[in-house]
Amino acid sequence: MNYLAPFKSRSEAFRLSRALNERHIASAIVNTPRSLGVSCGLTVVFDSSRLELVKELVSQLNLVSSQGIFRK
Q: What pLDDT tens digit does each residue of the chain (72 aa) get?
């Protein structure tokens, strides 16, 4: 199952994606789906097995434009 991490800031979405790629963790950047009901922006899609790591990275990298994490 995949999870979605939407961001208001494009640069912060890319920072998370880059941090995941540096750890050899697959992720993708997509336009934020309207169905999430959050503001437009970019979303990082990642595997559910990496949920805790993504939460840690959002905190460590101080990604303040994060809109939360949603199950796809």
A: 799 999 999 999 999 999 999 999 999 999 998 888 776 789 999 999 999 999 999 999 999 999 999 998
d(CA 9, CA 15): 10
Cα 51 from Cα 10, distance rounded (Å): 20
| Rounded Cα distance, 4 and 55, in Å | 12
Tell me the one-letter amino acid at 64. Answer: V
In sequence order, what are the beta bridge partners of 72?
none
Provide CB contacts within 8 A for 36, sequence distance 6+: 4, 6, 43, 67, 70
Q: State the Cα–Cα distance between residues 53 and 10, nearest whole angstrom.
A: 20
